[in-house]
Amino acid sequence: MSGWRPGVAAGEGLRAALAGRWLSAVLALLVCWAGALPGAVDAVTVSNLVAEEQRFLDAGGGVVIASVREGGVPALACERLDRAEGVEAAAALTHLGEPATLSAARGGDVTAFSASASIWRLLRVTGSPARDAILPLSIAERLGVRDGDWLHFERSPGTGGEWVPGEPVRVTVADTQILGDQYTGLLLPAPAGADTLADACVVAAEPAQLPALKAALPAVLAGGAGPPVLQDRLFTGEFTADYSAAYAHRPLRWAWAAVGALVGAVWLLLSWVRRADDALYATMGAGAGTRLLIRGTQWLLLAGLGGAWAVATGTVLALVQGASYGIALTYVARHAGAALLLATGIVLLGQARRPRSLLADLKDR
Length: 365
Prior knowledge:
alpha+beta, 17% strand, 14 strands, 49% helix
């Protein structure tokens, strides 16, 4: 390094960063805010997309309902779909035909369905031998029923009451919106028999697996009175957004590139302003490696401070706007880190310029 010890060169870089005062402060603040703002906005965008997609899935966005217009769907084949790759859960449902009424709330008929035992997993609730039935949250709120209550059902007037339990049943209250209004009612889980035909097979799958699942379902559920008809649980209105496309084309996805180029350009401008310092280093025998260590130490100190502030500030800004902590920290750090890597590359390229020593200038005069 032309006579300069590494420790001396690094110390000179630290001194230059501290001696820069307002120029150093401006650069650190530029790194902070240029890294924080785009990262925070992008984190909020991603967090909102994740929340909207989860709301879409909770409402049945990844659900397909298979039914046969005349006859039924093999209940056991439907239940076994629960183990297929890409399938989160599957359950067979059969309308019991006649409603029942609660002894404590006569006149309030409740529609009932028998369901395969996998209904617990489909609804994401914990099954228990101590629980006999599942009551939709909407019905429970209307009737004042709480999770774990014992309910005694009676046959509704004018019905035979064939399915009505003779003893009180203990219910689990669950959100059943994933099944849709058509299958909202009291659910009575029971193992599916080999010859049992159900009115419908409700299958929840990963969104990416839905096309392949729809292609395979007619063959898997064959055996009923006819070919099954497939219908998406949600198919209109606000639930038709393409979240993958929205994520891929979000406005600030590549903002880090512009930030990195801006910060690198500002450093090159400051290097030109301080070209006399580089000429002095060259006059004092500092070779290319020494000057790189001096400016590299200076850059790493300022960029490190600005980057740390950027991550902290951007994360706080994203949290204030409602982003989740994990997404806020991840995306702000990604933006700041990628921008600083690009800026560091520009800084290294800028150091390739060889300054003219002051002695050479004096000789030319």
